[in-house]
Write a structure and sequence with these properties.
Strand content: 5-15%
CATH architecture of the largest domain: 3-Layer(aba) Sandwich
Number of helices: 10
Structural class: alpha/beta
Strand order of the largest sheet: 3-2-1-4-5-6
Helix content: 40-55%
Distance between the termini: 58 Å
CATH topology of the largest domain: Rossmann fold
CATH class of the largest domain: Alpha Beta
Number of domains: 3
Oligomer: single chain
């Protein structure tokens, strides 16, 4: 409507200038330039009406109309921009068209900010969408925030772009919420790599029965304590391997696509040539990784290579 009003006012202004004999203004490019500088209140003066009638029409019709329309457009544009960013900050955005994102489900004050730091620690960072039931007064500017009534509503999850996400991390206050969210995600996205954190192994086992492709992480507290007691410093090594936030080497994973034949031992040697160390490998569909990195067996297509390096390698096996 506003665009039509602007076009109508500009067209009528041009017609009046032509009828008044303003030959220096009515050429299309000249008129557009003159009308715009008038609306912007710049008024360079290089083009102006020369006839009394033209000046009268400009003062009585062109000035007030053009300026009013321009200021209205600016006001509405600023309001729309403000509403857009306000909706995002309040968690009312819509990211369902986004793809190749990492969706984080749930917000735990002491843990979720660390997860966001880890996700953005790699070069280039990642597009992260955070969906939670909680109202965040000051959400991290690096994430796209969605406030949902529930973490299991497919419409809310789609609003967060979870149906198109490449990776989904579920970390909530309790295992029932985590389990329910994982089941909901599995119903709308069958290709994403989904990882869930559980406190209790029973909930993780139940999820595995229904969604075997979902990776469930169980709180390693007792095992880590025992390992640190028996092998002093082991906990620091494990922490360094999984974190991007220090200068230590980090554990990475890459998929072997089988572009050329290679044995597992050859893969280890190629990684070593690139200052990386192969720790383990896991065949596609296998439940557990193998730590036999000196095997002469062929590396199966689709296997995952777990290696330690200072940074992620774009092509772990080399050109």
């Amino acid at each position: 409507m506003l665009g039509a009003a602007a076009a109508a006012h500009a067209s009528l202004s041009w017609l009046l200038m032509m009828l008044d004999g303003e030959s220096k203004i009515v050429a299309p490019v000249d008129f557009l330039y003159w009308y715009a500088t008038t609306a912007y209140t710049v008024g360079y003066g290089d083009l102006s009406p020369q006839t009394p009638a033209g000046r009268l029409v400009t003062a009585a019709f062109v000035f007030p109309g053009a300026i009013a329309i321009f200021t209205t457009i600016v006001a509405k544009s600023l309001t729309a921009m403000g509403d857009f960013w306000r909706r995002r900050r309040e968690g009312r955005g819509d990211f369902r068209r986004m793809t190749d994102t990492t969706v984080v489900i749930g917000f735990v004050p002491d843990q979720t900010p660390k997860m966001i730091e880890e996700l953005h620690a790699e070069a280039g960072g990642q597009r992260v969408v955070l969906i939670t039931r909680k109202e965040l007064a000051d959400p991290d500017e690096r994430v796209l925030y969605i406030r949902a009534r529930t973490l299991t509503d497919p419409n809310e999850l789609r609003r967060a772009g979870a149906h198109n996400a490449r990776r989904v991390a579920i970390y909530t206050d309790n295992d029932p919420d985590t389990l329910a969210a994982a089941l909901a995600i599995s119903g709308i996205n069958e290709t994403a790599h989904v990882v869930c954190y559980f406190q209790d192994h029973h909930a993780a086992g139940l999820l595995k029965l229904h969604c075997p492709h979902v990776e469930a992480i169980i709180a390693p507290g007792p095992e880590l304590v025992v390992r640190a007691v028996q092998d002093p410093g082991a906990s620091r090594v494990l922490s360094a391997l999984i974190s991007h936030l220090d200068d230590s080497a980090t554990l990475y994973c890459a998929e072997w696509r089988g572009e050329r034949p290679a044995t597992i031992d050859e893969a280890a040697k190629r990684l070593h040539e690139r200052d990386a160390t192969l720790l383990a490998w896991q065949a596609a569909g296998a439940d557990q990784p193998s730590f036999d990195v000196r095997s002469q067996a062929d590396l199966p297509t689709g296997a995952r290579l777990f290696y330690v390096a200072q940074q992620r390698l774009a092509d772990p096996m080399g050109a």
